[in-house]
Amino acid sequence: MIYPGSKTILEVRGLCASVSGTEILKGLDLTVKSGEVHAIMGPNGSGKSTFSKVLAGHSAYQVTAGSVLLEGKNLLDLPPEERARAGVFLAFQYPIEIPGVANSQFLRLTYNTVQTQRGKEELDPLEFDDFVREKMKLLEMSPDFLDRSVNEGFSGGEKKRNEILQMALLEPRLAILDETDSGLDIDALRIVSQGVNKLANKDNAMVLVTHYQRLLNYIVPDFVHVMDDGRIVKTGGKELALELEARGYDWVGAKHRGAAPKVVAKVAA
Amino acid sequence: MSAVTPVTATYLESLLAGQAQLAASPLAWLNTLRAAAVERVGVLTVPTLRDEDWRFTDISLLTKMSFHPLRTAINLQAADIERFHIAEAATRLVFVDGVFAPQLSNIDINSGVLVSNLAAGGAACAAHLGRHAEFHNNVFAALNTAFLHDGALIVVPRNISVATPIHLLFIATQKDVASYPRCLLLAESGSAVTLIEDYVALQEEAYFTNAVTEIVLADSARVNHVRVQREGAQGFHIANCAVSLARTSNYQSVSVALGARISRYNLNVQMAEGAECAVDGLALISERQLADTHTCIDHAQPHGVSRQLHKCIVGGSAHAVFNGKIMVRQGAQHTDSQQSSRTLLLTGRAQIDTKPQLEIFADDVKCTHGATVGQLDSEEVFYLQSRGLSDTAARNMLTYAFGAEIIDRIPITSLKQQLEQTVLEQTASQL
User: Fold this and answer.
1) B391·A79 Cβ contact <8 A
2) Domain, as residue range, for A213
3) Same domain as B383, residue B250
4) Average pLDDT for residues B120-137, to the nearest whole number?
5) Does the distance separating the beta carbons of B405 and A100 come in below 8 Å?
């Protein structure tokens, strides 16, 4: 939601980034204020996923130009863990499995690590158990998920719920949801979206990275941005998503490039 | 690879020199057995890299050192070994530098099982001791048998299930001492027992543990065997274990190798008809450690089932060796065997030689094997970092998880927790 006079959470200026020498982001600008929900849409290969990984600090991507400020602080100087502690959260498109580590153990370790860094109290296993069970209700997750290994044998929907559960625990200032809707059936999509909506408030901000408009029926964005060829080429309100759904991406990209529309069948980075 | 030092007979002679100190046993069969072993030591030589079974395992460091048998036993107090206690184990036999320490041991007389020092062993002992762990072609088993004196004898009578595990604790306390731990477990038909074989040290200098364990399962017996090798950092540990499974018996073993400068574990499992075994292992080593596990599961009869997962986590410039042989003999139809070796190399200098080996002479069997060697996945590390964990903490967690899969299979909660803690500390210290 747009609040008058709200603070800027994320400020991206002229961001260029490459992976293995190939430039993917080519001068991206984006401003996100507290309370807002932004959707970044775009065809496969437009750089959406790269952008989310660059924000979270993935070492495979080299930032070659531009700046990224989180609440005025230079994010690009920080390793991924410090970005997380500063309030960046990335919900992964493909969360990893960690056989041998109980979910409860993992969640508590990440929670306590981040709490300590923020100068707050850690929770012991019993206190944490109560705390996490309460958060799990948001996502209609059974307590069984605590005893299982992290994401091991979880369905696509269960993994995404586990991602949003971590977001609920870590209370980020900026949450980036990378294709959170992919692989979800309607019920799972509803549950995950409800969880996200409950977590959104006037002090944090959400960036939804998505290929399809579907998710935006559940999580209504204040701004919709279209990415193409490593840049944001169009920004509008939530109605832009509907227009993209009806007309596809080509008309936006073509106008921007002033060239013939390209085939949108590249595999996402 | 370091140069092969020729090993002269004098090394074995010097080790055997201490044998003269061993008083003759009142048991005639024991004296005969020792004499046969002494004779073999005289014929055999210490293996070098030229021996097929030792081609990756350089033990020249061992042969450069001189060890002597225990001269003066150290009188330990209960408090000295308290940290090695395993709460679940009602029966504990403690051996200090190879010598039985009754004052530190505790035998639960209500368990229904016969537990004693080998020296007091009777006819059952005579029938089995030295019959399973062959020493005719194995110089270390021969040395152990030549020095056969103290040892753990466990007899689980027919149809008795022992509720609590039996803990054998072998403690090294003195430098330059060679000790020869020995264990014989006889599980009579239909019986069930859990045995913990635990090697620890109270000192950090060089010593030599040369152990032999024999485990005999009669029809339908069940044995859980947990082996923990947490020797001192400069220790040498060479062990031979022979397991003989009769019809439809079941042997489950988890062996964990954490300690010793150089360690070698030979496990030989003989399978009868319808017998089942699960043989899992974890070697977690760093710095300049060498840990070698050689196993052989021999399916000689039909309908046997064997499962094996062996994992190595190798850090520093350590070197792990795994050789897992599965033998399926001609008559062993309908054998079902799976073997997997997985290794995590934590540094560029860490080394693994892994060799799963399948030899099949029957035509109607189901056997699979495989080996993987890898490093931590950078995407996995990034995932954990994005949750606020430092690069080190992330790597620790993933390394720990890799090892935990084996440790989780130990059926004793307190030991499992102890080892999980050790793995956490060890992975934390080397990353």
Assistant:
1) yes
2) 8-97+154-257
3) no
4) 86
5) yes
